[in-house]
Design goal:
heterodimer; A: alpha/beta; 5-stranded parallel beta sheet; elongated; B: globular
Chain lengths: ~350, ~250
């Protein structure tokens, strides 16, 4: 269930020119005791439009702090705001930590982890790395970290510190696209050839228990394919796809409106649990949202037009159902709609949840 | 190689999606439907089995049935939690449907789902006593095993991982059913078992669905399906036939 909690911003630090690390503290509850590698989903209103974005936690379990890394994306409303406006003392809203980019911690068992991070994909990998090295005394971690150049390496100093702390157990290989390095292999991009070379000279895939990959899509595909080629099975390859592909808010299809007028509102009558209720609702609102807003305990589940929990029957008037992944054709013919996907078209609608 | 890649291309090339935020809306609809089908089927199966716990002839059988009810409910919980991450109201979800609802026993086999939920069609038919429940559990369990192997390759990583935990338990439920049938045969219940096989075989068979080709292709492009319904069905009928023969029973013609 999407429940948002308030978190106060206790610190905002720039890591590189266009990325910040934001420290957060829960204000009014919520279980923010995260698992390494999880992310937080934030919501923020921009000019009346709610934007939701997910950012990975970068702190480890034992750092005693909740931190996320946010890299500015071109044209990204939330990331630009976080980088330019967000400041200590402000309050943000986020859901409890979520995500399955992790494996169980086994303090008595030494494991060999292999992490791949591209750019800001380092954030969850850093959380995992910090946690497993701290809690599993015999585990090793090899990080292959791809960036454009030295200046764009997030957490460069932190990684240096960690290398000093876990000298025998942490190996960091920086792959830089534009800055030349002593070893040719470490210059360029991580693709199939690069992986092949890394796996033949530097990393023994047979010894790897789990591999974590977080970065842009082509990089993840290339690495996963190379790992599989070298015998790592799917259950040992963990992915986290970061935000580059986050879809925008789905725009509602303009209604053809052959019935109804230009009026922006509808007189709605909704029957539920045997009693009918009438109110004026916006044509931009779904039947379900209007019902909930008017204190009707309307049933719903997925709100994606899938689970059909919000099914109701239109008795009068016309609605436009913009998505339907659940109702069969015959039900639609009988006037059933998914109320979470249905917007009023006519100036009056009568809807029944009881039928 | 560019950093930018269309998400559809990424999926078509075997990419994995990892949380609701990076899931396109069309994909979201399909994965939610798959997860709702799983959750509803587990809840409906658990509800159906709950009613037969006390029909178990001995304490061991009742423990097995109770365990199946517990674990199927827990399996549903695992996936429903993932639906919750997409915004589903998990509390209302569980209580909204009458999971024990069934059609009449003599309703002809068919693929039509109940109007109220996404459970696979076979779970709309009522169990008729202990032996019948055991037979259904075996035939259906074999089908579930094949279906889950398909889900293990699903491009939505959290779902594939949930299934990785669920699959061995479901496998055990099927083994319990096979053990149960062996015991019933030893007790001379072969005729009753044959009748139940005749009843459930076509219903489990129908539950694989037909699957429109265009839809299957779309799901394959999204990495949500790899094998056609027809192929999954054939895998099941071969395996179920072999299992029945192994028990000294004849699969329906």
């Amino acid at each position: 269930m999407a429940r948002f909690h308030q978190l106060s911003v206790t610190d905002v630090q720039k890591t590189i020119r266009d990325a910040v690390v934001v420290s957060l503290k829960p204000v009014n509850g919520g279980d923010f005791d995260f698992i390494q590698g999880q992310y937080l989903t934030f919501r923020q209103d921009f000019d009346g439009i709610e934007v939701r974005r997910s950012y990975s936690i970068c702190s480890g379990k034992d750092d005693g702090i909740l931190q996320v890394g946010i890299k500015k994306v071109d044209g990204g409303a939330f990331s630009t705001w976080a980088n330019e406006t967000l400041a200590t003392g402000m309050v943000v809203e986020a859901m409890e930590p979520a995500g399955s980019f992790h494996t169980p911690i086994t303090p008595t068992e030494g494991k060999n982890y292999l992490g791949f991070a591209g750019g800001s994909g380092i954030t969850p990998v850093l959380s995992i790395l910090r946690t497993v090295l701290g809690r599993e005394a015999d585990s090793t971690f090899t990080l292959v970290y791809a960036n454009r150049g030295v200046n764009s390496i997030m957490f460069r100093e932190e990684l240096e510190d960690l290398k000093n702390r876990y000298m025998q157990r942490l190996t960091v290989i920086h792959i830089l696209e534009s800055d030349a390095q002593d070893i040719d292999l470490f210059t360029g991009r991580i693709d199939a050839d690069k992986c092949k070379a890394l796996f033949s000279n530097w990393i023994d895939i047979e010894s790897i228990d789990t591999s974590f990959i977080c970065g842009p899509e082509p990089m993840m595909l290339a690495i996963a394919a190379a790992l599989r080629d070298h015998g790592l099975t799917d259950d040992r390859i963990k992915f986290e796809l970061f935000a580059s592909a986050q879809p925008g808010r789905l725009k509602r299809k303009a209604s053809s409106a052959d019935t109804g007028t230009q009026a922006k509102s509808t007189e709605a009558t909704i029957t539920m649990d045997g009693s009918a209720r009438s109110f004026t609702m916006d044509k931009d609102q779904t039947i379900l949202d209007a019902a909930l807003e008017n204190a009707l305990d309307a049933p719903f589940a997925c709100k994606a037009g899938v689970c059909s929990t919000c099914k109701c029957r239109v008795l009068e008037g016309e609605v436009e159902m913009i998505a339907n992944h659940a109702l069969e054709d015959y039900e639609v013919e009988q006037g059933y709609v998914l109320s979470c996907q249905s917007f009023p078209v006519s100036d009056r609608v009568v809807v029944d949840y009881d039928q | 190689m560019s950093d930018e890649m269309n998400i559809d291309d990424y999926l078509a090339q075997g990419g994995r999606l990892t949380n609701p935020a990076n899931v396109p809306s069309r994909y979201r609809g399909e994965i939610m439907k798959i997860m709702a089908t799983f959750v509803d089927s587990e809840l409906a199966a658990a509800a159906g089995f709950a009613d037969v716990i006390n029909a178990g002839p001995g304490i061991k059988e009742r423990i097995a049935a109770a365990r199946i009810v517990l674990e199927k409910t827990d399996n549903a919980d695992k996936v429903l939690r993932l639906m919750g991450e997409f915004g589903a109201n998990t509390d209302q979800y569980v209580n909204h449907h009458p999971w024990t609802d069934r059609l009449h026993r003599d309703t002809p086999a068919g693929t039509t789902r109940s109007a109220h939920d996404m459970r696979i069609s076979v779970l709309n038919y009522p169990l008729d006593g202990w032996a019948d429940a055991v037979v259904m559990n075996m035939l259906m369990g074999l089908a579930v095993g094949i279906q889950l192997s398909e889900f293990l390759r699903c491009s939505y990583q959290p779902f594939a991982e949930a299934i990785r935990e669920v699959a061995p338990r479901e496998q055990r439920h099927t083994e319990l059913a096979i053990e149960g049938i062996e015991k019933l045969i030893a007790q001379g219940e072969t005729e009753q078992i044959n009748q139940s096989v005749a009843y459930w075989w076509p219903r489990v068979s129908e539950s694989f669905g037909i699957g429109a080709t265009s839809r299957s292709k779309a799901l394959a492009r999204m990495g949500l399906r790899t094998t056609s319904n027809a192929d999954l069905h054939d895998q099941w009928s071969t395996k179920a036939g072999e299992t029945l023969k192994g028990l000294g029973l004849m699969p329906p013609a």
